[in-house]
Design brief:
By secondary structure, the protein is mostly helical. Helices cover 52% and strands 3% of the residues. The radius of gyration is 21 Å and the shape is globular.
Length: 207
Amino acid sequence: MENIDRKFRILAVNPVNGKIYTEADSLLLCAKDTAVPAALFAYKLECERIGANSEHIRSIELLYNRVKDYHSAIECRVPDTIGAEIPRCLAGDSPQPAPLPHQLRMIEERQMLDENRQKLTAFIMEPYQERVVVERRELNEKRKKLICYIQSPQFHSVNGAEKARLHRQAAIMSDYYDILTERINSFRPAPPGPPTVPVCRHDKHVA
């Protein structure tokens, strides 16, 4: 399966559900391009036609307004493609780019937030609950390594069918991670105030 976006390398994390998106399933438009507001307006009309919910429509309107405000503050430009992007993407005539040095930063930050939340308030878990926490931690390490490989130049030499399988594997691992997170969050109802997150019995930072 070919990448959707051939011009940019993408690593995006949805802050609501933690799902990860790359150039394999996403596309990127630069806000400075003069064509973007028209593209957003057309997208909004199509979403209304197909019955997207009101929250999604409103989010497009807010995004459209932010882009217009951005255009009024900067010098916009006509979008173009310059250099070896077409030969690089279609014929492989130029070297593959080096891996992004910050490609896992958002995942790392999310993991740090989880750890910091654990230090706020804590309670002792049952053994089976501890195993779920360990399972999620180990899964996250494997998931990060797979994403790093997908973002690396070596991945371009993998055949199309295997690429598709690896992308599916990454998506399923993210869904699996979300399920484990939901299980952990359900171990104890969160009381009013700061979120209560379970920690293992052997954690020396238990308050």
